[in-house]
Amino acid sequence: MVISRSPEISILGDFNVHHQLWLSSPFTDHPGELAYNFAILHDLEQLVQHPTRIPDRLGDTPNILDLFLTSNPSAYAVTLSSPLGSSDHNLISLSCPITPIPPQDPPKRRCLWRFASASWGDLRQYLLIFLGMTTASVSETRLCVLSA
Question: How confident is the model over 84-93, as pLDDT tens digits?
Fold first, then answer.
């Protein structure tokens, strides 16, 4: 079993596309079809569910033109607010919980044995005196050091 972990994808902006089924638009245009196919192909979910454009001319209808496509929809909450200034688009706010990365423990001091730098002759002499050994080979010395 192979588990592949893909990075999260989030795309947002004023797409100005129309799609009847996907975005509840009065019609579907070619860019709307392309955006819809792109979202399906990349397993993206569109989170803006209410019209973002406010009609400013007679005959216009409210539309969802500002999209937020993401591969991780459960991580986000979308809210719409009144337009800022003279904009004909509602303000879109996205929120997601951000968990801080916990600080790492500082490195711990540890003892390193540098066997290549050891003075084996001095160690052998010490073991002869300390342990009362008459002779000690290199392999016996290493065995004593490693088992300590």
Answer: 888 888 999 9
Give yes or no for a contact between 22 and 52, defined as CB atoms under 8 angstroms apart. Answer: no
pTM of the shown model: 0.61
Which spans in the chain are helix H? 20-23, 30-41, 120-130, 138-147
DSSP string, 48-88: --S--BPP-STT---B--EEEEES-GGG-EEEEEPPSTT-S
State the angle between helix axes of 138-147 and 120-130 in degrees (0 to 180), rounded to the nearest 10. Answer: 80
| Tokens, residue 23 | 């975005």
The pLDDT, as a whole number, for residue 142 is 66
Nearest by Cα to 74 from 98, 47, 102: 47
- Contact in structure between 93 and 78 (CB atoms under 8 Å): yes
d(CA 78, CA 96): 9
Query: How many other CB atoms are found less than 10 A from the CB of residue 44?
Result: 20
Residue listed under structure tokens 């079809």: 33
- d(CA 110, CA 120) in angstroms, rounded, equals 22
What's the pLDDT tens digit per position in 23-59? 889 999 999 999 999 999 999 999 999 999 888 888 8
